[in-house]
Every structure is written in C-alpha cells, then in structure tokens.
Amino acid sequence: MMAASPSVSESLTASGQTLSGRKSEEIADLIDLFSKTQYRAKEVSRRVETIEKRCLELFGRDYKYSVIHNTNGEVCGHYPQQIVFLEYESTELHKDRFESTVQITKLQDLVNRSKMARCRGRFVCPVILYNGKHICRSSTLAGWGELYGRTGYNYIFSGGTDDTWGAESEPEVPEDDSVRNGDSQLFDKVRGLDIKLLRYLSVRYICDLMVENKKVKFGLNVTSSEKVDKAQRYADFTLLSVPYPGCEFFKDYKDRDYTAEGLVFNWNQDFVDAPLTIPACFTKNLSINWSEYQSWDLVHQTQNYLKLLLHIINSDDESGLLVHCISGWDRTPLFVSLLRLSLWADGAVHASLEPTEILYLTIAYDWFLFGHMLPDRLTKGEEIFFFCFNFLKHIVSEKFSAKKKQRRKNSQFKDTDFTVDDLCKLKSREARGSVTSLSSDFSLITEDAGGASSLTNEAVDLFSGQPLGASSWRKGHTSSPQTVLWNRPDPMHERLAHPLSQEAKSSSSSSSNQSEQGFTRAGSSPMSVPGRRCPSPSERQVRLEAVREVFLAAYSSTVGLKSSAPSPSGAITGLLEQFARGVGLRGTNSII
C-alpha cells in the first residue's frame, strides 16, 4: 500500500521548525564564540566578520543606516569595525516620518575628535533609534591621568604630531606651575568636543550608573563623570545619578544559585559615594519610593531603573538619552539590551525581527562587538550577561511597556507587579505532573520567589510536556506593519502552566502584597482566581518569553551554569535541558 504523501501544511510546519532550529543553533554558535573570545577590532577573524555582516543585515530590515568606520579599531579598539548609525525607519509607513538631520561625515569627524574625552576612548555612540530619538552608550569621562597619557602616546606614535583636536587647536600641556589652569584648558577642549557630539545627536539626558563619583585606583582618580565636573560644563544637560552595582556584585548572584531575590548591594562600602539623584519631573509619575533604593534587592532595583529609563525616553519627543557606567561594557550593555528588547516586545523598534533574530542582534552587537569581556567574567563567576536575559521574565508586565494605554479603573492590582491575567496563568504543580523536573524546593533559574515578581514565565505545553519553544510560535501580522505577533498554531494550546518557586525573603516591602490581597503565597498550595476565564498571554509576554527560552537553551548547550551547591532535585539541569530540547539543541556542557 502506498504511503500518503505529506500535506502542504505539514511540509511548511517541518520547514519552519528546521529554520527555527538553525536560527537557535546560530545563537548557540554565537554564545560559544563569545564565551571563549573577547572582541578586538584589530583582530577580526572570518567568523567575527560573519557576525558583523549578520548584524548589518538585521539592522537593515527596519532602518536606513550609515556606517561610522572603525577599521582595525582606529577610532576605538573595542567598538565594532562598522558602527551602525540608524538614520530613520525604513518601513513604508514610517519612511518619511523621521529623517535624519545628521551628516555622517560630520559625525565621523566629531567622533574622531571627541573620543579622548571618555575612558578608554569609548565615545558617545548611538545604538537604538526610538521615535526619531537616539539612545546612546559610552564610558564615563576620562580623568587627567588618562588624558595626558593618551595625548603623549598619540604624539609619540604619530611621528611628532597629534591631529586628535583637528587643525584648529592643539592640546596645551602646562609647562609651568599653573597646573590647575593647564588642566582646565585641556578639559575645556576635550570635554567641549564631547559636548558638541552629544548636542549633534540631540542628547539631553545622561544616566550615570556608577556607584562612585570618580573611579579611584591606587589613590588616584582614574576617571571622572559629568556629575562632578568642577567647571559644570554639562550643566545644560539633565544629569541622573542612578548608582547600580558593578559586575563584581554578580558573583554574589551566581553564588546564590542565580537567585536575585533578596540580593541587596552593600551601600556602606568605602568606595560608594554617588547618591541617587533624579529630577523630580521623572519621579512624580512613577509611583516609586526612591528614598528606599538602598533596601531594594537586585530584581527591584533593575526593574525600577528600567522603568525610569523608559519613562525618560517617552517624556521628551525630541531629545535622546545617554547611558553609561565606568568602562561601558558591563552595566551599560545590560540596560541597553533590556531597553532594546523591551521596546522590541512593544513593536516599537526592530518591528520585523523574530525572537531569535532580536536575540542574536542584541548579544552580538550590544555585548560582543562592544567589548564585553565574557571569558573573563565567566572565569570570575560574574554572570551579569546571563542575568540580563534571565531577567526578561521580570519585565513581561505591561507596566514596562512603552505603549501609552488607558489603565483600568478600580483595579485592586494596579500597584503590584502582577495582574489578574498573570494570576490566571498559575496552575498547580500537581496539574503538571511529571512534565518538568522542577520540584517544590526549586529556586535557582526561576528566581521568582515572593516579592512583587512572583511569577515565572517558563511556558510549558501541557499536552506534549515540552516548553513552548520559538519554533512553536508562528509569525503573523496585524493591520499595523509595526506590529508582529507570534501565535500558537493550535488554539487548543492556549493554556499556560507556570511553575511556582520557593518563597524567598526579600528586602522589598512589596513582598507582602500577595497575602494582603487575599492570595495564597507561592510555595505550597496552588493559586487560583475563581469565577473568571484566563485570557491568553499578552503579545509582549509572548515575545519576551520566546527570547528568554531560546537564550536559556543556547546558554545551557554552550556555557552551562555552575551552581555553588548541587540542587537536590536536579532542577537546574532538568529545566535547561528541557529548554534545549524545545528548540532542537542538546546540552554539550554539563551543568555542575
């Protein structure tokens, strides 16, 4: 008897799964290279060239862009060889809406002349275009030691000339006892060029993530910052000091089995001297008690800072934002990446990219090509890179959405970090049976243990026992070309199961919200909301969950997680292996 030939729909489904599997493998290959190699613009292999070309292709899907040339790292040794300057969105709907007023030749000149103003030459670089406004990244301001050192270095190795400042002016190094005047003149020139670049990019807001006013090593100020510029050269900008722990703090995160709840930074250390400083115009509309910032755990601190950044870029229709830390390659990519993914989940940027594509772009461009030292950070256990993408489960709420929506009146959940819809998605562990290896004492990867973010977002298919991988979602279009939806192919699988993790103590006062509103805490009996039907997850949640799932699968198959103490349930291994199976990957590294 002749076997029936496969239907067209079956062939298309198989083809789509194969394509999705290839894209997931592309993510794994990228992370594998990233974990072994730090990017240097002057040492680019064919494999890295392929990554750079892929990034350009992904940017070109939605934007008209120009390139700032950084061949062999001539401008900055740890910026991409081809730095993308996004001019305007290239979709038909927005093609003529936000045209760039920036001339790329003038921008290249300003970049070349201003790079000395910033630590390690990591100049102000636009990386995200949102509603015609540039979100930029950089390092902090260079101190006098680095300025004089680099000036002398350039003079010696350029044959006795230094054209950093252009033909109009030469740096004047003081030759008499007027050291203060000499420093002032040099800073005027260098920082004046930095300010010109900021203004040319229409940047008004500067968000400084340093916990120090100035970085001090061996008793010397090696870097400075806009907030402590004595001449107040940056007074025309809106400066925000939002101190956030450096990469060293994320070793504590790893040592606590990747649990961010209850992990509070020690603000009493001697080197911590930068206070939280935010203009009142940004604090009054966010309903956040900023005076309590030193008691926030890592989850709430990151959530609140992201809300602040999103509020800033939505409060001004014309001005851009600069985010920086010290060197601009740890905390800076964390928030740049979260901003890019959050805006993408709203359909506001990179509208045509699928979850695997936006994940590839932000890992490759925001982290790898801008010099994050992942091999060094992994050796030291400073897992800020992993934290970034695992943290996506904490920002699926519409409260992090850039879309301006009418809030529902008289909602008793409006001040919490979860909604009725979120609670609807919670199912009992018994209902899941042996679908996953997560046990009741598991609190490693899921992290969501009490507090305002008590929901985990590992979506599990109740029928097949597999996680909802990127291959399970199909791409569809709404009436707006700026909106892309990923929908389940089978309407039977509308229900989601969310594993609940162990209750953990948190320093945040919002951890009491659940019990105050009459709900059982996570960790024992199931949560339920009787009398109403659970709706489907929001488009934003679907997108971010898909990105996080692909990341976890790729990370488990390459780097893996190293728990400080073996989980008695083997939950960490089981969860990541499940993600790997869901997108067609198999773990090659044991997770110990």
From TrEMBL:
<dbReference type="InterPro" id="IPR016130">
    <property type="entry name" value="Tyr_Pase_AS"/>
</dbReference>
<feature type="region of interest" description="Disordered">
    <location>
        <begin position="499"/>
        <end position="540"/>
    </location>
</feature>
<dbReference type="GO" id="GO:0004438">
    <property type="term" value="F:phosphatidylinositol-3-phosphate phosphatase activity"/>
</dbReference>
<dbReference type="InterPro" id="IPR039802">
    <property type="entry name" value="MTMR14"/>
</dbReference>
<dbReference type="InterPro" id="IPR029021">
    <property type="entry name" value="Prot-tyrosine_phosphatase-like"/>
</dbReference>
<feature type="compositionally biased region" description="Polar residues">
    <location>
        <begin position="513"/>
        <end position="527"/>
    </location>
</feature>
<protein>
    <recommendedName>
        <fullName>Myotubularin-related protein 14</fullName>
    </recommendedName>
</protein>
<dbReference type="InterPro" id="IPR039803">
    <property type="entry name" value="MTMR14_PH-GRAM"/>
</dbReference>
